[in-house]
Amino acid sequence: MQKINKTNIIIVVLFGLGIILRLWNLGSLPRGFFRDEAALGYNAFSIWTSGKDEFGATLPLVFRSFEVFFLPLYVYITAPLVGFFGLSEFSSRLLSSLSGIASLFFVYLIGKKIWDKKTGIFALLVLAVSPWHIFYSRGAFEGNLALTLFTSGFYFWLNFLNDKSRKSFFVSTLLFSLSMYSYQSERLVVPLFALLTLSLVGKDLWKVKQKLIFPALLIVVLLIPLIFLSFKAGGYHRAFGVSFFSKDEAPPGWIEGYGENFFVNNKIYLRGKQLLSLYASYYSPKNIFFEGDFDKQRSIENNSVFYGFLLSFLIAGFATIIKKPKLPEKLILVWLFLGPLPASITADPFHTYRSLLTYMPLTIIIGRGIYIVYKKLNIRWKYIYLAGLTLGVVLNLYFFWYNYSILSQVTRAANWDYGYKELVAYINQLPGKGKVIVDDPFTEGYIQFLFFGKVHPTTYHDEIAKLGSLDYYYKDPSEIRPNKIGNLEFRKIDWPKERGDKGVILVFAKELLPESEYKGDPKVELLRKIKYPDGKDAFTIVQIQ
User: Which locations, inside or outside the cell, does it occupy (predicted)?
Assistant: First the structure.
């Protein structure tokens, strides 16, 4: 009894730690609020208050955002959260945070289901403190919701393989299907996972086919809108747009000055080589344990996906699994094999967000490896081993949290669109302001003004209607570029021309307006500078006199 109680206490402590790391100070950490987060939050607000998205489409299957579409589930679940807590960074990020917390539970259950309770505990430990999972659980990332749905679907699929019950089959396939309504990666991985799984368990399914007909039909009905969407611009535009197959530039290895033939400049060969190179990068220890994502918005100073000292446990766990894998272990390997595919067909090197599905099976395998080593030790060395493991976790977690909560919030603030909250608050409090032009050639800053200004959707719908047709599923989204909210305009500022426009307020991002352009000019009044945490200019606000 005492042993059971100690084990349960450890589980509760790990869950508590995981919850704190994912929920504490969620509204202000990370510092800044990225435009994609604002788009998700404002569309949830718009759905809750008007039943329409920011563009005025009623309960859409996909949401238009800038020049891409994103899938609907995150917005629809976030809508009541925004309705309850109000439109804020916290309410927009909350679903991702709760998804991350739920993942802790299911990773523990998967480890326990496939092997034993101790493996589940070690897998829970690894996930609770993993940099990648804490990071993506603290921002409004619809991919994190999709990952949790896939992980929970995997757990119930294991249950189904064990009990062959209609309930487990339905819950599992429902969760897998919902993950496909959450993020683009799952739209590729889930069907492939289903096909490969059927090749392993098809005979067992055939034996209980009578039980599965009705729930299978329900799932097919659920997926009909997604299937319909796959043939429309709203369904394929994002996936095709980021794929290297859509790029006009020559693939790596292309020799300029030579024609294309079978032996030289063979595009099929070069693209295949590129695909394999990108795919392999997602299993590279250098990327997974030491260097991490190259994009500053998707990474943390001095941290990678996992802590470096866990590499040996991944090797131990993997070596054990591949010897004589049982069916559940084979499914873990299938999951791991498919995880990097969506990211591999894009031209971006080591994109952690698009490859989130890869890191959950790695987490489980690392947890298994920790237990395998533990099990082989005698009682004395087990205590030393656990003490060393605890010390390694504590030190790495401390350095991670310092780099995440302090250092990265200074060095990466610009990458998280820091300053818009202060900018919107300042512009909105100006008395009797006239026209305001925000220097924004890509017209993406408008969503921050909608979000932080809490602009009522019906007001904005009247404005957006002037842009013309909003055919969601058939038109290229690049045709529609929102560039105005009331007296606010979002476009490239023609400084020589507009510095003569009396009364206009001009907003320049970063250091695009040097002091030499306005200092000493009586016709240009500096209203305010908004600074990044490192002291550099985030926004310069001037008014023409």
Answer: Cell membrane
